[in-house]
Amino acid sequence: MRIVCPFCGERELGEFTYLGDAKPLRPAAGGSEDEVFDYVYLRDNIAGETSEHWYHGGGCRAWLKIARNTLTHEISSVEPAAGVGQAAK
Amino acid sequence: MAEFSWASRSPLEDVLVVGAYGARDVEPGISLTEVRNFDLIQMMARRGKWAEMASTAKDRFGVAAPDVPKAVSASDVTLIWSGPDQFLVLSKGGKHAMDILSQAFSQSASLSDQSHARALISVSGTKARAMLAKLSSLDLHPASFPIGAAAATSIDHTSVNLWRGNDRPDGQAVFNLLVFATFAESLWHTMLDAAAEYGVDIRLSEELG
User: Can you tell me which residues the record assigns to a coiled coil (chain B) (predicted)?
Assistant: First the structure.
C-alpha cells in the first residue's frame, strides 16, 4: 500500500503509522460520562469507506486524515489533519 | 561541583576510516564523505506565521524559503525543506548560528539548534543511485529527483533528510543526507554494506558541497 502525502508525495506504507478512527470528537469540557465513554471506547467496525488518522512519522511528521475503503484498501482522499483533537464546538 | 568539558565530536568518529573500502581492483563506484563542523538550525513557523517567517528568511538569506520539498542554496547557506511550515538552515562559520537567527526570527518561528545532533553524509559516484536504491524507496532518477530536490524520508527505518546538491565537476550527482547523531553509526554501516560491492572511497570534509 502506498499513501500520497499531501506534502511529500507518494510514499510507502512503512513511513506511516495508523492511529485510528478520525470520526470521534472529544466532548466539550464538562461532557457527560456517556459522551466520554463513547469518545474513548466505542468504535464502529465499518466494512467500506472509513475516515482515519495516519501519521507520516517516517517523513514530514504531519498528521493526515485519510478516507480509505476497508474492503478494497482504496484511498480516496488524503488531507492534512491540522486542528484534530480540538474539543467539539 | 563537577567541572564538565563538553567537546563536540562526530558521531562517526569511531567508525569512519578514510580510504578505500569494499571491492578492490576497481575504480570506486561510490564516494562517501562525511562533512563535519557545520551549523544546522531547525526552523518551524509558529501557527499562522509562515508568511512572516518566509519574509524574514528572504531578507536574511537572500533566497525564498522552501515551502515544498526542495533545498535552495545561497552563497553561504542552504535551506532544506523538512516538513510543512518548517525547514533546516545549513551553513558554516557561525554566520547563521542559533544566537543570531533566534533574534531575527523571534516573532515568527521556533528554532532548535541541531548543529551537533545530526551527521551529514554526502554520497556520489557512478553507482551512487544504485547503492541508494537498495536503501530508499524513493525514485532518485534525475527525471524525478533533480538538483535541488529534497525529501524527508526513512532509510533503514531511520529518519533522514535527503536532498540532491549540485553535481560534482565530473557531472556525477551528489546526494546529501542528514541523519540523527545516535542513528548515524548504524546507517553508516548499512550504507557501507550496500556500497561495498561497487568499491568505496571514504573521505572527510570540512566544506559544505
Answer: none
